[in-house]
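Quick one, T. Sequence first:
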Amino acid sequence: MSEIALTRPAETAIAGERSRASKASLVALLLAFAVVFLVPCLGVLYTSLKSDAEIAANGLWAPTGNLTLDNYLQAFSVGSTGRYLLNSVLVTVPATAVSVALGTLAGYAIAVLRPGPASSSGSSCSPGCSCRRRSC
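Structure tokens:
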């Protein structure tokens, strides 16, 4: 006859409180990491919307009402940012397509062949074998 282990309600309540406390501390830790990561990113974005004169006069984090896209317009018109962006797209899209195609083919091969453990001779499954039988 098997015995059923019964837990006391007090022990269950304590475990539940620990679980809630650990979840709360995990959420707090993740929020802290998110803030540490996002503050510099937001600072860069905010600073990119200010003119050089405003940054020199008021500093990086000083709130101003004169946010403008002139820096971005200048980067695309004067600099070669548009060409660089096009080059990135021309490299990234085919590379991603080839990676997806090869990954799909490899996934299909693994799903169909289902390779098992290597045989005692050290060789794996022979070509044309389904690897489901031990005799190939």
